[in-house]
Design brief:
4-stranded antiparallel beta sheet, about 350 residues, 10 strands, elongated, alpha/beta, 6-stranded mixed beta sheet
C-alpha cells in the first residue's frame, strides 16, 4: 500500500482543471472524474491496465473492485468484505491530493443499489443536472458485457449506462498511460532487474543452446527452442540465477525464426519447422514483478558477404536512430534519421523496406 496515496494523487493532479484545459486535456477527454473498474481475473490477458493499476495502488490485484476518483480529492472504493478489511489500513492516512477515502462494503441485500447511488452522486459533483463525463478504460469496459450476475463491476457499469443516469462515458486510457510512463526510482530498479534477467536468459539460455545445436549439427525446431527459453524465464534457477519463480514470468512466448521465413510482428509465432543454420532471429522478454523488458538478436551463421554487409548497414542505421532519440525530438525525427542514413550510404532503394513500426 506504500504507493497508494502517491499514485492516486498523481491521477487526480493530472485530471484536475489546471491540466484538463491545456494540451494534455485531449488525453483525458475532459473527464470530470474517473472510475477504474477491475473485473474478474478469468481472462488470460495479464496486461490489462486495470490490473496494472491495482498493483500500483495496492500491491495486489483485487478483482471485482471499483475505484472512483474525483477532482475534488475524493476516493471511493467499492469491494467485497475481505478486500475492504485489507484496505482499512489506509483509512485516516489521507494525504497528497486525497482528502477523503471512503470504503463501501458490497451489499447483496439490494444488489449494491445504495452504493451505486452514493458513488454516482459523488461523480456528478456540481453538474447541476447536466450530463457528467466519467472517464473509463473504454476497451476493458467493452469487454465486460459477459460479467457474472451479481458482480460489483457489472452492476456499476450497468448503472452508468442506464437511461436517466446523465452520464457520458469517455476514454481516459491515453491519460492513464501518460501517468504510468513516469517511473520513480523503485520502478527504474525493477526495470533494470527485468532487463538483466532478459539479457542473462538470452546469453546463458538461448545462445548457449543454439551454439551447441549448430556445433554438433543437432536437429531441433523453432518451437522447441522457444519452449526451452520460456521454461528458463519461468524458472531462472535453470541457468543458476537466484530469482524466485513467483516473481518472474514470460512477457510472451519467445519467437525463434530462421530459414528465410521471418515475421516481425509482435504476434509472430515460433513454427514447428526445423531451425536452419543461416540467419536465426530470437525475441524474448522477462516480466519481473510486473515490469517487462524485451530483447531481440539476429545470429548470422557463416553468412555470405552480401548478408554480413547488409547487416552492418542495418546496425549503422540503428545507431543513427538512437542518436535521434533525444528529449524534445519528435518521433518522426527517428524515421528521418533512418532515411538520411540510408541515402548517405547510397542505399535509398531500401527506404521503401522500412517498417511502419520503426
Amino acid at each position: 500500500m506504500d504507493q497508494f496515496y502517491p499514485f492516486i494523487s498523481q491521477l487526480i493532479i493530472y485530471t484536475s482543471k489546471t491540466i484538463i484545459h491545456n494540451r494534455e486535456g485531449a488525453f483525458w477527454n475532459d473527464a470530470n472524474c474517473i472510475t477504474i473498474d477491475r473485473a474478474s481475473t478469468e481472462d488470460e490477458n495479464p496486461y490489462k491496465k486495470s490490473e496494472i493499476l491495482h498493483h500500483y495502488f495496492f500491491g495486489y490485484d483485487l478483482p471485482d473492485t471499483v475505484v472512483l476518483l474525483t477532482k475534488e480529492g475524493q476516493c471511493v472504493i467499492l469491494a467485497a468484505k475481505k478486500k475492504v478489511e485489507f484496505l482499512e489500513v489506509a483509512k485516516g492516512q489521507e494525504n497528497g491530493s486525497i482528502n477523503e477515502l471512503t470504503l463501501l462494503l458490497r451489499d447483496k441485500s439490494d444488489d449494491n443499489k445504495a452504493n451505486y447511488a452514493q458513488m454516482l452522486e459523488l461523480a456528478r459533483g456540481k453538474a447541476n443536472g447536466e450530463n457528467v463525463k466519467i472517464g473509463i478504460l473504454m476497451k476493458e469496459h467493452k469487454s465486460h458485457g459477459d460479467l457474472k450476475e451479481g458482480s460489483i463491476v457489472g452492476g456499476w457499469e450497468k448503472t452508468l449506462t442506464e437511461d436517466g443516469s446523465k452520464v457520458d462515458l469517455v476514454d481516459i486510457t491515453a491519460g492513464i498511460s501518460i501517468v504510468m510512463s513516469t517511473k520513480d526510482e523503485s520502478e527504474l530498479d525493477l526495470l533494470k532487474k527485468s532487463s538483466v534477467l532478459s539479457n542473462k536468459v538470452l546469453k546463458h539460455g538461448f545462445i548457449t543452446k543454439i551454439e551447441s545445436v549448430i556445433d554438433e549439427g543437432l536437429k531441433t525446431t523453432h518451437e522447441k527452442m522457444a519452449q526451452d527459453v520460456d521454461e528458463i524465464i519461468e524458472d531462472p534457477s535453470k541457468i543458476n540465477l537466484k530469482v524466485h519463480k513467483d516473481m518472474v514470468q514470460s512477457c510472451y512466448f519467445p519467437i525463434v525464426q530462421s530459414g528465410g521465413e521471418y515475421d516481425f510482428k509482435v504476434s509472430a509465432q515460433s513454427s514447428s519447422s526445423s531451425v536452419k543454420f543461416d540467419v536465426i532471429t530470437v525475441s524474448l522478454g522477462a516480466r519481473y514483478q510486473m515490469y517487462c523488458s524485451n530483447v531481440a538478436r539476429t545470429l548470422l551463421v557463416d553468412p555470405p558477404k552480401q548478408v554480413s554487409s547488409m547487416y552492418e548497414l542495418l546496425l549503422g542505421m540503428h545507431e543513427a536512430c538512437l542518436k535521434a532519440m533525444t528529449p524534445g525530438n519528435p518521433l518522426k525525427a527517428v524515421y528521418g534519421a533512418a532515411v538520411k542514413y540510408l541515402k548517405a550510404e547510397g542505399k535509398e532503394d531500401l527506404v521503401a523496406s522500412l517498417p511502419k513500426s520503426l
